[in-house]
Amino acid sequence: MKMKGRSVITYNVYAPTNVICMLRPRRQNGQSIIEEGFNIEPSVPFSEYTDLYGNACQRFVLPNGQVTITTEVQAQVNPTKQIPSPVPGYILVGDLPDEVMYYILPSRYCQSDLQELSNLAFQIAGNFVPGYDQVEEIRKWIHQNIKYQYGVSDSTTTALDTARNRIGVCRDFTHLAISLCRALSIPARMTVGYLDKLQEMDLHAWFEVYIGGEWYTFDAVQEVTEGYRIEIAHGRDAADVAMITQFGNATLQSLHVEVNLLENEPVSQN
Amino acid sequence: MKMKGRSVITYNVYAPTNVICMLRPRRQNGQSIIEEGFNIEPSVPFSEYTDLYGNACQRFVLPNGQVTITTEVQAQVNPTKQIPSPVPGYILVGDLPDEVMYYILPSRYCQSDLQELSNLAFQIAGNFVPGYDQVEEIRKWIHQNIKYQYGVSDSTTTALDTARNRIGVCRDFTHLAISLCRALSIPARMTVGYLDKLQEMDLHAWFEVYIGGEWYTFDAVQEVTEGYRIEIAHGRDAADVAMITQFGNATLQSLHVEVNLLENEPVSQN
Amino acid sequence: MKMKGRSVITYNVYAPTNVICMLRPRRQNGQSIIEEGFNIEPSVPFSEYTDLYGNACQRFVLPNGQVTITTEVQAQVNPTKQIPSPVPGYILVGDLPDEVMYYILPSRYCQSDLQELSNLAFQIAGNFVPGYDQVEEIRKWIHQNIKYQYGVSDSTTTALDTARNRIGVCRDFTHLAISLCRALSIPARMTVGYLDKLQEMDLHAWFEVYIGGEWYTFDAVQEVTEGYRIEIAHGRDAADVAMITQFGNATLQSLHVEVNLLENEPVSQN
Amino acid sequence: MKMKGRSVITYNVYAPTNVICMLRPRRQNGQSIIEEGFNIEPSVPFSEYTDLYGNACQRFVLPNGQVTITTEVQAQVNPTKQIPSPVPGYILVGDLPDEVMYYILPSRYCQSDLQELSNLAFQIAGNFVPGYDQVEEIRKWIHQNIKYQYGVSDSTTTALDTARNRIGVCRDFTHLAISLCRALSIPARMTVGYLDKLQEMDLHAWFEVYIGGEWYTFDAVQEVTEGYRIEIAHGRDAADVAMITQFGNATLQSLHVEVNLLENEPVSQN
Fold first, then answer.
1. Which PANTHER family does the entry mention (chains A, B, C, D) (predicted)?
2. Residue A173 to residues A109, A258, C110, D134, D264: CA-CA distances in angstroms?
3. Nearest CB to D47 within list B30, B47, B267
4. Would you call B185 and A92 a contact, using CB atoms and an 8 Å cutoff?
5. A47 → closest Cβ in C29, C35, C54
6. Partner residue opposite C247 with nearest CB, options D20, D51, D185
7. How many angstroms away from the CA of D268 is the closest CA of chain C?
């Protein structure tokens, strides 16, 4: 399926402000990036690097005044990877590949080492078969028990906060899901990007878990995990994959996102 | 100076337990690792990998019963790097090398994005010259205001906890120092290893900050930062550089550490 | 300066052929990639990875028949970096950064370990000041003594061949220059990309050397090294940065390249 | 099996000479490094880094006079990995993992892109089943047709030279084997280390190929591939894994190697 994502971000800048952006798509297996653009208005030079997780990062200085950052991407993507039957099982920690080990450790917003989160994980999923069944129970529990609402959480809200307050947005749903999976020694990471099925057009966050020897996509915001996605970045939590990290005095004025599927029918992919 | 470190860790294991160890020395500039050993009793095979920060990690399964892990290292090391005069200054975020950027972001135990820690950083160091002077103010403030005491903090204690409770061990002193530096946009990381000047023989933790275009060592536990050190690992905080991360049912019974200088006089190093 | 590059490559494919492409621009400091596209006609899915040198690689299968690969890039670029005064000097091998060490070793097409090439290097540049002066002597010597001609060298031609036959294209000029620099223990690498100053529109190859603590651009094809460039890839030699590496039965039918400067005047850059 | 390797290298140094050594063991899955040492006499400081292939590299300056470098390692190792039945098959280039792709490209001493080597590969193995059978045919052909003799090849000898001269040492056997495998699009790399079965005690070189989804060990010097091995380094060819690369005026005076198995019976390994 051909899919297009576009985001327009406007800042009011009161003093030149250094930023790191993660707004360009990941270059990886499973999504063919056919076209993409990254424009800053007014025009300023930017440099790029690839971070430890393979994400593309853009560094630049926001100049004074109103600044607009527009990113566009057009990609050939697959639908969300199907869960095979029988469902993927739990991988023993000793059998995890080295490069997956980072994703069972606690991180800034996913304090999976806390007893309170560990207890919650066992309460929700302790009686289910380790692996897919546990993850899906966690996902469903969050979908049913956490209220989706803008404006009650912020950039410092953690999984523990969300477990207690039971309210938040996709970022918070995802942090809680990741923490509960890690508490069960299931590697879990945060992915941000475009999803075509989203009601309100926005950049979205979901989680991936390593079960049965592969990474699978789960989305606690959706009734069932589905849709076409373009991945922008993934990492341990929002500290790793922040859309924009700023160092200075600038205010986000607006974020406008568009997502479109460009074909009616999926084409064959190998 | 030739320096020797040795640690003996004993576990009581009640069920086979997967672990990741970081107990072997870093291989890097500034410390010449002449000899080292890593023994597990009873003997079990282990595999090794190098993590994202360049640390050596050992993976294996602790078998049932009492298990002893002994590591030894003998290295040629320099004394703690001197602060040059004039002192190293603040590097603008826009001028930081890409590979340093990870160390100004918040992490599991260093919540530098919290207003409370940011306020404390500005209160302590806001009136000092950005760079070395600010870092040294933070280091001294922690040394003078945080009480060093075993047994009051644990593996989930964060910099925010320490800022409030004003008590802890080297790990806690270090997390707080790192958080306050990052709140001032100064890159800071945690280093663990052997220090010859330590009163009670133990593995030690300190912090490094990136000022004036280089990493410098600071130690909030010491009256002044000094001594010979062998670095084992460095990372964003204790989640990255845990001596042992375990997945299962094992109890640390004892940790015994020895550190010795093997020569009376430093030899010339280039 | 805003600069645009575009390449259209047509293949006749007689059996499905696996390829690795390096046709998309590097994401790095010094060039801001504003827009770019990568299209295969007929459309096939492709995956991407970043290689050991930080280059973007595209992997896919060329289907039977005529296949056209079109890449486009629009970037904000600086002119070729000026040589400062005093000129950058030779860096002692012991003082080279670790990540530069790969570029003083011999490689597939740059056999800097051969006595014949070493002798040539000393004959050309042995009496000049180590560093910039030696490199510029080598560059000028190649420009003056190697005849630029299409069709006499091929993809297996080495620096030794070119030193003997004294004829070739940009790839051959560059391989010889790299080999002679490395024979003098000066790190040198191959860069491919777009150059606005080229007479015949083509993808171009030049070399970079590490002197005075930085990488500088040199071009043995030009009278003097100058112009605006968009870098696609760099590595040890053409084995690392081949535009297309194919595994099977396909014939390159045509390569069409366009390079345009989009503004008349350079704008200020930081 | 516990295994011990030791090498003592003596140099006569006429002017301070920068070197890069690869003499310490790889830290990886399948070999547990229990003890190891690296001593330079007279003592000089050295720094270490990990190269692009994960090998440990030591950098230092050989001082004037006679210098002795002694390395020792004691490891728990498995016997050479058995070939399973049915034998591992050829992996289509399109299905190779990204990180394996480097090993089908030509390199300094393995010019697999040359028609002459490609012809030889097809002549030897063209009629055999792709994968294990082809590799084993190549290995046996080299064992039977290349004469093992010291002193006729040197550090610049390539696979093409060996294919023509049919004489050489383990380094040359290995380069030829790698080149012929790559000519058949089978990823192949060079490994150096200790082998217990070697007649004359020396550091040894062999090759590994990626078939059936894994790396397997092959040794063209042996009648059949067998024995216990400690891996020091692996890479594309001897340019990547040179025991010592020197930049200056020093003469290798002697190399003395000892390899011992420390137990009579293999112990169980998982």
1. BLL5557 PROTEIN, BLR5614 PROTEIN-RELATED
2. 11, 22, 54, 53, 57
3. B30
4. no
5. C29
6. D185
7. 37
C101 CB within 8 Å of a chain D CB: yes
Query: In the β-sheet with B17-21, what is the strand arrangement from edge to edge?
Result: B47-50, B56-62, B17-21, B244-247
Query: What is the total residue count of chain B?
Result: 270
Distance, in Å, from the CA atom of A239 to the CA atom of B182, rounded to the nearest integer, reads: 13
B52 touches chain A (CB under 8 A): yes
At C201, the pLDDT band (50, 70, 90 cuts) reads confident
Q: What is the CATH number of domain B2-78+244-261?
A: 2.60.40.2250
CB contact under 8 A, B37 and D39: no
Q: Whole-prediction pTM value? A: 0.94
Point out the residue among D93, D104, D113 whose CB comes nearest to the CB of C156.
D113
With beta carbons less than 8 A apart as the criterion, state whether C255 and C263 touch: no
- Is C247–D104 a contact, with Cβ atoms under 8 angstroms apart? yes
3-class DSSP assignment, residue D110: strand
**How many other C-beta atoms can be found within 10 angstroms of the C-beta atom of residue C129?**
12
Q: Domain C2-77+244-261 belongs to what architecture?
A: Sandwich (2.60)
Cβ atoms of A23 and A38 closer than 8 Å:
yes
Taking the CA of residue B180 and the nearest CA in chain A, the distance in Å comes to 15
Q: How many CB atoms lie within 10 A of CB D204?
A: 27
Provide the pLDDT for residue D87: 97
In angstroms, the CA D173 to CA D158 distance is 10
List all residues of chain B from 192 to 231 with a beta carbon under 8 Å from chain A: none
Contact of B114 with chain A, judged by CB distance below 8 Å, is answered with yes
Q: How many CB pairs under 8 A join B and D?
A: 65
Mode of pairing for the β-strands spanning B17-21 and B244-247? antiparallel
Domain residue spans of chain C: 2-77+244-261, 93-235
- What ipTM was reported for this prediction? 0.93
Residues D165/D151, Cβ–Cβ less than 8 Å: no
For B111, phi then psi, to 5°, come to: -85, 65
> Beta strands of C45-90 (E only): which ranges?
47-50, 56-62, 65-77
Q: Which residues in chain B show pLDDT less than 70?
A: 264-270
Instruction: Determine, for residues A38 and C35 on separate chains, whether the beta-carbon distance falls below 8 Å.
Output: yes
Q: Check: CATH 3.30.450.20 for A93-227?
A: no
**What kind of architecture, by CATH, is found in domain C93-235?**
Roll (3.10)
Q: Is A29's CB within 8 Å of C35's CB? A: no
* C86 in contact with A, Cβ within 8 Å: no
Query: What pLDDT, in 10s, does the model give residues C257-267?
Result: 999 998 754 44
Residues facing A216 on adjacent strands: A209
B150 Cα to chain D: minimum distance (Å): 32
Determine the pLDDT at residue D181. Answer: 98
Closest CA to A12 of A260, A246, A225, A266: A246
